[in-house]
């Protein structure tokens, strides 16, 4: 992407922005589900959680930071 210029690069950044916004919407839904059922995200073999509301919120902030710095819209 660093070698791309103009319209092609902007189109890819717009696609990235769309993907990130979709991920944020799904994360909001996942937080609600995790808060309703604390078993979600638990990995029995690892005896720990792979995801939980606080981790999802952290991820959402990371995605928002990417949107703010890299995506045009």
Topology, please?
Blueprint (H helix, E strand, L loop, with lengths): L5 H31 L5 E2 L4 E2 L3 H18 L3
Antiparallel strand pairs: 1-2
Kindly describe this structure:
- By secondary structure, the protein is mainly alpha-helical.
- It has two helices and two strands; from the N terminus they run H-E-E-H.
- The chain has helices at 6-36, 53-70; strands at 42-43, 48-49.
- The protein has a two-stranded antiparallel sheet with strand order 1-2.
- Strand 1 and strand 2 (48-49) form a beta hairpin.
- Helix 1 packs antiparallel against helix 2.
- It is elongated, with a radius of gyration of 16 Å.
Structure summary:
With 73 residues, this protein is mainly α. The mean pLDDT is 88. The chain contains 2 helices and 2 strands, in the order αββα.
Strand content: 5-15%
Low-confidence stretches: none
SSE ordering: HEEH
Task: For the record, give the distance between the C-alpha atoms at the N and C termini, rounded to a whole number.
Answer: 18 Å
What's the overall average pLDDT, rounded? 88
| Percent helix range | 55-70%
Enumerate the strands of the largest sheet in spatial order, edge to edge or round the barrel: 1-2
The outline comes out as: elongated
Largest sheet: 2 strands, antiparallel
Q: Could you tell me the radius of gyration in angstroms?
A: 16 Å
Give the number of helices: 2
- Beta strand count: 2
Summing up helix and strand content along with how strands pair, one would put the structural category as mainly alpha
């Amino acid at each position: 992407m660093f070698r791309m210029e103009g319209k092609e690069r902007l189109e890819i950044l717009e696609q990235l922005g769309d993907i990130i916004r979709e991920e944020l919407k799904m994360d909001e839904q996942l937080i609600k589900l995790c808060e309703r059922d604390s078993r979600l995200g638990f990995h029995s073999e690892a005896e720990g959680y792979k995801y939980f509301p606080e981790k999802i919120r952290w991820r959402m902030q990371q995605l928002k930071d990417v949107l703010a710095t890299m995506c045009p819209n």
